[in-house]
Each structure stands twice: as structure tokens, then as C-alpha cells.
Amino acid sequence: IGNGTTLAPAVANLDLAAASSRTAFMSASADGKKVATCNSSSAPFVYLFSYDPDTKRAVPMGVGGLPAVGCVCLNWSPCGNYLAHHPSATSTVKLFKHENGSFVEVHSEVASGACRGAWSRDGEWYFVATGNPFLLKNNRNGTFTKFALTNGITGWVEGVPIWSPDGRHVFLEMNSAPY
Questions:
Q1: pTM, entire model
Q2: Which contacts (CB < 8 Å, 24+ apart) does range 53-61 have?
């Protein structure tokens, strides 16, 4: 930084030896204590680690309840209770509740084409970027409701959507057609 201050790195190396060498996607919970990794080519596909920031060690955890399929995106909710999983073999987004070391599917929604997603900072909304983008509202009782976007978005959403800091807007990269 301009005054000569040196910052310690905020990212630690995780020993992912238990995971495939082809890890393609990674998501950390907001509290930094859980890390999910996913690959799209070899089984098993999803790995979950408990991360201890003091020792900088990742300990493999069970992945009970998660599907044994590759994925194109994983996202922890800000509260760390939900994991959004976008399987690579289907055009679906699945939301899982993480409780007592297990995952329970709480919502599944068909999307058009490969998709990415992003949680709002407060965890109330999950935006799904796909050929026909939509929002999933966290009803705060373990259920989610889909809201189709009707504001004239046309084209194909690419990349990862980004929420504005106030949570009122989502920024998207658009293309006129899928690739």
C-alpha cells in the first residue's frame, strides 16, 4: 500500500490431496470454515472440507446427500446453511441445506442451458444466470420461491452475476446467443 505497509496474504494453500487434481470450482462459506470443491470430469465429484483458519488446514468432511455428478458452479449462502449446486450434466440448479454434516435437497429448478449463480449479501435471494435468468427467494423456512424476470432481459447471460453492495441490483454480462 502507498505507505510501505506489507499485508499478509489472505489466502492459504489448502491441501486438496483428497480431492481430484481436476478441481474446477471452489466456494468458501462466509465464515471461512467450510470449503466446497467440485470437478466436472472424475468421480467423486464434490468434496467438502472443514477449514481451520488458525492451523490453515482443511479437513475432509462427508458429503452425504450431495449428488455424485460434476458441476459448473458451487455457491455457499452468506449464512453457510445452503449450498447451491449447478450440475454439469443437466440444466438444473439445486439448493441443499447443510445440517449436522449432511446435505438435504430443499429446492430444484430447471434452467435453460449452463448456468452460474450468486447469493445476495443478506442471503434472501439467489440469482440464477442462464438463458432465461431468474431469482430464487429464500422464504427463511427452508423453502424457496422462483421469480421469473419480466423486465425484458434478452440474450444469454455469461459469467457470474454480481450483486450491488446494497442488494438492489444485479450486474450481468450479456451475449446475443449461447456459445
A1: 0.75
A2: 53/12, 56/12, 56/13, 57/15, 58/14, 58/15, 58/16, 60/18, 61/34, 61/101
